[in-house]
Amino acid sequence: MIELKNISLYFFDKTEKHILKNISWHIQENENWILYGKNGSGKTKLLEIIAGYLYPSMGEVIRFASKTFGNDIRDIRKRIGYISISLKDMISKNESTIDVILSGLYASIGLYVEPSGVDISYAHELLDTINMNGRANDKFNVLSDGEKQKILMLRASINQPELLLFDEPTMGLDLSAREDLLLSIDKISRFKKTSIIFVTHHIEEITPLFSRILIIENGECYFCGDIDDAINDEILSSLYKRKISVTRLNGRYFTILN
Predict the structure, then answer these.
(1) Are the beta carbons of 236 and 223 closer than 8 angstroms?
(2) Which of 79, 216, 249, 250 has its CA 20 to 30 A from that of 69?
(3) 3-state secondary structure of 52
(4) For 177-230, what is each residue's pLDDT tens digit?
């Protein structure tokens, strides 16, 4: 589905600064991945490269077995849904929930095209999947932060993409809202068999939906493989340079800082 070959990203100001360095990553169809790392490790930049919003300084990106250059990236983006918390502040406070979802058909901020009856019905079907169909005509502004994140997820899902990218979607949510959103992500993934890359720096957000993980540190690959092999005392203690104990309960991971 996605293959990154020796991806590097450099920014040039007074000095050369590497953001990402020599990252190779192969994402197969039907895999759900966690992209994990500390703040500032390069997670969001890597996600933007996958989505085609940022070009690497070096390396090769292959999406859906196709090398894409120039205008072809627009077609690729229709197959990738991108959920970023920054989008929340761009949406008009008076726009209805259903219109926010439908605007995803056109990748627009605001709905300026009359959608078809089929598209409207599908938007309601998506809302029903996460038990929010009764909120279709509510203004986006009156929704809670957790509900707004759910609607942005549905907006990204309306084109029925093959891959959904979540960039720290639980940021700023309380415990209950976070768990509700994680459950909704699980539901939408299973509803259309969509693969997911989920960015986080909190291991308690890793649900049983995910089986694979890429950990990056200072822009480089620290670990790539099965989650069960990565989330343990040894690797996390080495990553954070602190003594960390990992426990597991009901398929979820939790840490204790010793």
Answers:
(1) no
(2) 216
(3) coil
(4) 999 999 999 998 888 788 999 999 999 999 999 999 999 999 999 999 999 999
Hey, which residues does 5 pair with through a beta bridge?
60
The residue count for the chain: 258
Q: In sequence order, which residues have a C-beta less than 8 Å from that of residue 234 and are 6 or more positions away?
A: none
The region, left, alpha or beta by phi > 0 then psi within -120 to 50, assigned to residue 40 is left
Phi-psi region of 144 (alpha: psi -120 to 50; beta: other; left: phi over 0): beta
CB 164 within 8 A of CB 197: yes
Beta strands in 87-243 (DSSP E): 163-167, 195-200, 212-217, 220-226
Query: pLDDT by residue (tens digit) across 40-69?
Result: 899 999 999 998 888 999 999 999 876 554
Which pLDDT score is estimated for 111?
A: 82
Residue 13 to residue 128: CA distance in whole angstroms: 49
